[in-house]
Description:
Blueprint: E1 4-13, H1 17-28, E2 35-48, E3 51-64
Antiparallel strand pairs: 1-3, 2-3
Amino acid sequence: MGVIIVREMVGVSPHSWSDAARQAVALASRTVRNIRTVEVVQSTARVEGGEIVEYRVQLKLGFEYEE
């Protein structure tokens, strides 16, 4: 393994924090190759009327640099 580049992103889901993370990685993998690591930095949620309506995860994605 050579150089690893780390980028941050936020994933969202109406279902769960893990689903938000999965969706973020799936979306990133459409344009980023060689994703090697995912670190969940923070998990939060949006609340309306006393109910959670959106789960959010802030992620750090690590992917291998290609020349």
